[in-house]
Amino acid sequence: MKKNLLLIIIVICMLFTVPLLYYKKPKPVAEPCEILITIEGVAKSIPLEHYLIGVVAAEMPASFHPAALQAQAIAARTYVIRNTDYGKKAIKPTTAHQVFIDEKARQQKWLTAFAQYESKITEAVKTTTGQIILYKEEPISAMFHASSNGVTESAENYGGQDIPYLQSVASPEENSETVKMTVNELNAKLQTNWTQEDFLNLQLERNSSGRVQTVKGKKNFSGREFRELLQLRSTDFMMMEEGNDIVIATKGYGHGVGMSQYGANELANNDATAQQILTHYYPQTTIGNVCTKK
C-alpha cells in the first residue's frame, strides 16, 4: 500500500514538473512609446495614436479601402512626427499642417455611420501602430493631396527643391472640375484690368507633370500663384471662352506632391497593400517605427 501511494505521489509530481522543463515565457507585447501631440487651440495634449484617428477621419473619406486608410495613417503619423519633432512642438489642426477633428466633430460628420466609420479608422490606425516612412533612416516630409492629374507633382516643380522621394509618379485616378467666371470676377481676384481676349491669349507654360508652371500675359504669374488667387482645384488647368465669360477646366485636386489619396484608394482596390502604396508614391523610402527613432 505504501509503495502504491509513493508511486502515485511520484506520478503526480512528474505531471507538474515535466511541463515546466519545456515551458517558455511568452515574449512581452511591444507597447508604442509615449508621444503626446499638442494641437494649437486644444488645451490638453493627446496620445499620438489617438490624434491620428482624428486626422485620418478629417483627411480621407472613411468609405475608402482599409489599405488606403492604413497608408494615410502612416503618412499622417510621419508628417506629425517630423513637423513636431516627436511631439516637442505644436501642430495646427488645419490644412496649414494637417486637418484634425475630435470625436464630437466625427459624430456630427458621420451621424448614423459613426460607429462603423470610427471602428474602421481606429482599426487602420491600430494596424499601423508606430509605423513611419523613412528616407536614409529619417522621417520624410510626407506630403499628400486629394487627387492628381494622372501623375503626381515633383517637389522640384512645386517648390524648387529636388527631393529623391518626392518625384513625379503615375497615379491612376481621374478627377476634374470646370468653373465659370466673369471677366470682372477674374480681374478682381487677380488685381488686373484685362479683357476677355487678354485672358484667352494667356500663355500657359507647363512643366514635366503637365501642370502650369508659369502664366504669361500682360502680367505674369506662377502657376501656384494663379491657382491660389482664383481658388482653383489644381495647377493643371486650361481656359476657354463661353459667351462673355471664361471657363476654367482643372484636373486633380491639391498641390499634387506626394501621395494622392484618391490614387491610393484606386491602388488599394486593385489589391495594393498600404506599404506598396507608400513605396509607390514615396520612392526610395522604407517603413520604420517611431519608437526606434525617438
From TrEMBL:
Q: Where are the transmembrane segments?
A: 5-23
Residues annotated as domain Sporulation stage II protein D amidase enhancer LytB N-terminal? 42-135
Q: Which InterPro entries match?
A: Bact_Sporulation_Assoc, SpoIID/LytB, SpoIID/LytB_N, Spore_II_D_firmicutes
Keyword vocabulary terms for this entry: Membrane, Transmembrane, Transmembrane helix
Superkingdom, natural source? Bacteria
The record's annotation in PANTHER family points to: AMIDASE ENHANCER, N-ACETYLMURAMOYL-L-ALANINE AMIDASE-RELATED
Under the heading NCBIfam families, the entry gives: SpoIID_LytB, spore_II_D
Give the protein name, as stated in the record.
Stage II sporulation protein D
